[in-house]
Amino acid sequence: MVRDLTSDYPRWALKKNESAGTVFSVLVDPEGRALRCAIVAVVGSYRLAEYVCEQLKRVRFEPATDATGAKRYGKIVGLIKMALPDTEIGRQIIALRQKPDVELTVTSIPDKEERFREVKVQTLVNDNGLIEDCNGSDNSTNGLTAAACKVLEGEKLPIETAGDGSAISYVQEMTVSFSVE
């Protein structure tokens, strides 16, 4: 089923034939409220990208949980496309794909895991920005998930802060892709 989304599209953007592909980062508190939204990258209209972030700040999210099931702050990085397909920039935006967070080159991939060229992992980032825990997002473990987590643990990510400015730990899902050299 195709849904007409023009009712969700801002009138000013429709009038100007504006489209945007917005890579965003949203920090969500343990109750599921968006604390802030940052625009990471934009293709097309920056004003429409700002609109996307404003809308994301109003969303109530499912709280992030760590490996024990405890609610945590969560960081969501994603791509939202608002595109008018009858425009050149709209078609370019429709064709956009979100890049993986990490790309690893390996010498081989075991035959049984050949179909998993990309894995999603859930990371726990401490208040110093270091990844201190990593698991398969769906609690699955396979060789590629284990390899991805081995590379990621101890890596530095941005330090995030709560509303009072204090550094916080947070959960972030990351996509890791593998290519064979």
Structure description:
This protein is of the alpha+beta class and 181 residues long. It has two domains: 1-98, TolA/TonB C-terminal domain (2-Layer Sandwich); 100-181. 18% of the residues lie in helices and 38% in strands. It has four helices and ten strands. It has helices at 11-15, 46-56, 88-94, 143-152, and strands spanning 20-28, 34-44, 64-65, 71-82, 102-106, 118-125, 131-136, 160-161, 167-168, 170-180. Strands 1, 2, 3, 4, 5, 6, 7 and 10 form an eight-stranded mixed β-sheet that branches. It has a two-stranded antiparallel sheet with strand order 8-9. A hairpin with a 5-residue loop joins strand 8 and strand 9. The longest helix has 11 residues, at 46-56. The radius of gyration is 18 Å and the shape is globular. The model has no long low-confidence stretch (mean pLDDT 90). InterPro entries: TonB_C. Pfam families: TonB_C. Residues 8-71 form the TonB C-terminal domain. One of its GO terms (biological process) is transmembrane transport.
